[in-house]
User: What shape does this take?
Amino acid sequence: MFIIQCPWCGDRDQTEFSCHGEAHIARPKNTESMTDEQWGDYVFFRSNPKGMHRERWVHAHGCRRWFNALRDTATDEIFATYKVGETPPEIPESSSANTSTGNASGDRS
Amino acid sequence: MSQICRLDTGGRIDRSKKLRFKFDGITYTGYAGDTLASALLANGVRLLGRSFKYHRPRGLIAAGSEEPNALIQLEEGAYTEPNTRATSIELYDGMIARSQNRWPSLGFDVGAVNSLVARFLPAGFYYKTFMWPASMWLTYEKFIRRAAGLGVSPIEPDPDSYHSTYAHCDVLIIGAGPAGLAAAATATASGARVILVDEQKEAGGSVTGASFDSDSRTKLHQWVDDVSATLEGSDNCTVLMRTTAVGYFDYNYITAVQKVTDHLGPGGSDSASGAQGKQPRQRFWKIRAKQVVIAAGSIERPLVFADNDRPGVMLANAVDTYINRYAVLPGDEIVVFTNNDSAYRTAINAASVGATVTLIDARSDVAKALCTALENAGIRYFTGHAVTAVEGGKGVKSVRVMPLSEDGKTVHGQAWRIDCSIVANSGGWTPSAHMFSQSGGKLRYDEAIAGFVPDMHQAKRINPNHSAGACHGTFDTSGCIREGRDAGQAAVLACGYEVSQGVDAPSVSDDGMGDIAPIWLVPTVHPVGEGSAKHFHDFQNDVTAADIHLAAREGYLSVEHLKRYTTTGMATDQGKTSNLNALAIMADIRGAQIPEVGTTTFRPPYTPLTFGAVGGQESGELFLQERHTPMHQCHVDNGAVFEDVGDWKRPWYFPRNGEDFHSAVQRECYAVRQSVGVLDASTLGKIDIQGADSAWLLEMVYTNNWQKLAVGGCRYGLMLNEHGMIFDDGVTTRLGENHFHMTTTTGGAARVMSWLEEWLQTEWPELDVHCTSVTEQWAVAALNGPNARALLQSISDIDTANESFPFMTMREGLVAGIPARVYRISFTGELAYEINVPARYGKLLWERLAKAGEAFDLCQYGTEAMHVLRAEKGFIIVGQDTDGTVTPYDMDMDWIVSKTKEDFLGKRSLTRSDTKRGKRPQFVGLQTIDPLQVLPEGAHIVAEVRDQPPMPTIGHVTSSYMSPNVGRSIALGVLNDGLAMKGSTVQLRLMDGQVIDAQVTDPVFIDKEGVLTRG
Assistant: This one.
């Protein structure tokens, strides 16, 4: 049962939040010119690393704000939380597992 | 019956308080301070249960919560609780307890025949025998449950109340033994906020039961009393006794169950009422701690020897505890069987209270001082020997003893018999690493103590904790106190407090476990599995060493496979006494080291807990709170039958004069289309959307066009997810240039709100749009039917003429004297007006509508009639006719998908190869050939009828009703390539084998041209 620091409200219990998977996946523009494979990659595929992961959370039973978190999926240690639009923090060197960061190409969210 | 095994003096019982209790119908007496186990033992009752699989007679093995055998059905009726451990039940006057798993009686148990056919009940028996054919499982299951059934669950509602609460502290200490007390005293002295929990009713841990020389005992009890008194008197320390830490979760979140009034018996929570009001039976603590000190102690391991499950074979420390704490000498003639030093104190202690003791040590090399001590106490002893048989059916009568070979693998020479009634055995001590393991810690095998101890901790940064004392592999009391003090100091330091000096350990003589030479499986004259003797390692699940051999022969070598195949360690005791023995026996078979076989992972809960405690206050009405519309009381007064829609209670139908469901719904449906009906539509999701970019947002979340919608205009919209699948629908109205009122399905309200927020916050934060849920701010009465206009006109100042208030527009005005927004939209295909008023006027509106409606035979109708009416018109219900796998094209709703918009959510998915392939399941109407036959919803349309399933399915029924207005049954469904199949006949096969023919039709059954609704 995590304690999560909402960037707006501070430390709160995990039961107030819900997680919505990998962060920093921007919705593509000009979708009509995309191949099925490119579109399918955006809609269906997400990275699922063991180790450091940037992911989206929402303070569903609190301020209802979406934000991002940097979490080690192997230990569940949350190294940082940050607001939408803020520059993602660097991945600390002391993290326990391998450090796949997934698709960090889009940084609008 | 008198307490024949009770000692005249000693023990932590109150002989002045005699308690009467019943076990299996017989009345006994015990004393305050007893457990049910100690009281039964005091009365000479040794047979307490039958084993799970073989129904073998079983008695007490332990004195603590690790007890695997003595499972009790406690109390009767609504208060009854199954599978409670006799060792954890504090005795109270009037207790009623029963043994379990026996029929017809404990002494004569028919199931014991299983023991005779044990050859046919090996490990994996259930998997092998009862898996096939699958259709027979329902039959087998009843038999197995009955035969194996442990206790019986209560069938009446629980009369007790429970409480759950949160707590926060700097340092949580689990266990109030020597280590835990030392940690608590040290942490408390530093000023930290401390919580100390222990499952026993009094602090002291091993000190309360273990054997020491009299000088050490005095000093230790004094130390425990002094430290306890200090803690109790400290404002910054909360001491929770009778409280078991059961779960350890991330970020140092620990759950614990406190038995507040269990020790008072049924109704105890009432009698415990006091200044603080009524006390709950149990309290569930959810504790966040900055630091945790685990001082959970250790559990003695049984030796695995032939027929080691006979009543009277006990752990050595249990014999100690019954003598020292409860003043019960379990038997006059005791054989102590050990492989380590700790049981020598048991032997000497038992002899000191009058028992005749013989000690058998599997080791041939034993310290001289130990032997001298035995000799001084007049105790016979044999080193390098083993107990090879235990005789006596329902209780130990004697043991057979033989010399062991040098390697401990075989016995040789002549066996001889020792008469005895108790076999006190010790195979060493297993650190209770459950909490450490639950916190994410890994264990390491320590050869010196022949056990697993806490090692590395990969999640230590989020679960900072410190193990101290016996759970850390330190068994001598002084060492435990020192480790506890160090752990307490480390914990408060990490919390930012200045470290106090902490408590000092009294100077006592106690070597803990001393030396140990493991003997994991004690040999007999027969190889394991041959002969009639059984070597049990898991008592509760009835698993023997022979089962482990069988598992190994059949290839189940890893510990995870071994567990599941033999069920070892999977009973309610989670293998507290059995896990290491099972691992070690497997290691021996494989010729491997114990760590190579693996360790078991401990999972919550540490001991079983009641659902009541976990539920806490959230039961009955508070379990799930109901949502009521502002008109709810009107519906209750009108005799509505309600249905649950999400958390809402909605009127389902309004029976009149004893009507049944069918008659009422038919009447309501008919009445609406004949004159006018009113539906409480307040539960519809409503979102107020404002801001300069509002129309742009709607363009993106709906499939159709919104920019050009006139102010005051309404439009139906369909929302897709990015997969292109329909996920909600509703009518949205433009209240102003930059102001919209969106409605959603009742069930989708929260989901749509989140959906809008998600896109606004994460993808388009630059947009000027603000969404506010106003579902509960508006009460909605939907008038439907040809007389809807006449009724509305009679109570409103709004000009309701068709030209001034056309279909799909909104007007504001007074309705029944109440300021209202009236939306001319229809979910029935009739002339319809949805009257929205501020929620506080909802009841008033309903009452005035009902009054004014009398002149029009206004019919109040419920959700079922609403469903039928919309189906007559072919309107979909998202979630009923759609299931997240259908596109607008599949639903024959091309008309709502904009061809001109550059983009909207889900658009690109509509041209994916799979969504445009055609011949997908498509939305159609279905009419049975027999007009009176109503298809069951969910019925499958099959490509070909066969005698038996499986048969190829090509579609299914999503909605089906008897329609009084169409004058026959109607149904909606999805059918592969259905749009092209209209006019053809399909076959549906029901569960009972019945085959029904139906014609594929258009889904609109009345007023296809839409004249009524625009009239």
Remarks:
- The longest helix of chain B spans residues 214-232.
- The interface with chain A takes residues 249-251, 253, 288, 440, 458-459, 461-462, 722-723, 754, 757-758, 761-763, 765, 902-903, 907-909, 912-913 of chain B (CB under 8 Å).
